[in-house]
Specification:
Distance between the termini: 37 Å
Helix content: 25-40%
Radius of gyration: 20 Å
CATH topology of the largest domain: Rossmann fold
Number of helices: 11
Shape: globular
Strand order of the largest sheet: 3-2-1-4-5-6-11
Order of helices and strands: EHEHEHEHHEHEEHEEEHEEHEHH
Strand content: 15-25%
Length: 323
Amino acid sequence: MKRAFITGIEGQDGSYLTELLLAKNYEVHGIYRRASNGSLTNLRQLQSDPLVFQKTLFLSPADLDDAESIRIPLEQAAPDEIYHLASQSHVGASFEQVEETCRVTGLGALRLLELARKLPKSPRFFHASSSEIFGSPESSPQDETTPVAPVTPYGCAKAFGTQMTRIYRKNFGLFAINGILFNHESPRRGENFVTRKICRAVAAIKAGRQTELVLGDTSAQRDWGHARDYVRGMWLALQHTAPEDFVFATGKLHRVQDIVELAFQAAGLDWQKYVRQEKQFFRPADPRQVVGNPAKAKRVLGWQPEITFEQTIAEMVQAELPA
């Protein structure tokens, strides 16, 4: 039985990855933020399963800026594979919490790499990088060779973790991989992200708890996929014969407006009756064409996104509606 160690196990990606690995007969060890006080909503079903919890799933509180809190559960797990997913991952919030973002997201990756390097049995290491490392790219779509030039504190912190992963691969011989992840969503997405905000609002309107959805500019475009597809890519990357970096993306751009229309459609409502735009919520125009080229992952790993953008938004709305 293989053993995996996951940071940020309580998050969107961590919880889906846990389910995937358990289905593949892994023993899964994970750390979650102390601040969550053990309230791990995304893992609740697994925690309540006596055949899984404390049998093949083991959880420990830890903080990325406290190396000792990570070292103890990591050494106890003695993992074959490490998936480093934890970070301060909201781009907007990174401008308000610059130092914390760099400490947790950037230095946190370095701490884990150093701990992994010192383990008696060398594990395979996956670092969840981000399309934000590319900043405002001059070429589109972006792939593994696109220059790293972040323009946000979060992107800068992720770029540091990405480059350190490459350094540990090249100089210390660690089987270390960067998965450069473009936007990916699901019903488990954090409530402060625009996709989840829209889907929650639509469900509230459908249930009569809300009368309208107020938005700013809805023309912004992103490459959105589904988290379940992306965690499958993470696993495939660590099964590859050699440590290489991979872009995981759909290669397709969609507008925020597309999310609005699909979400209301999933709830059987006419979006034009409920959506109001206000200038105060408009941000400066974002001219970036942030769209990934997953050709290498498809060619080398046989990875392919299986869940469409339309299916993703419909699933997110359905999850918010009363059962």
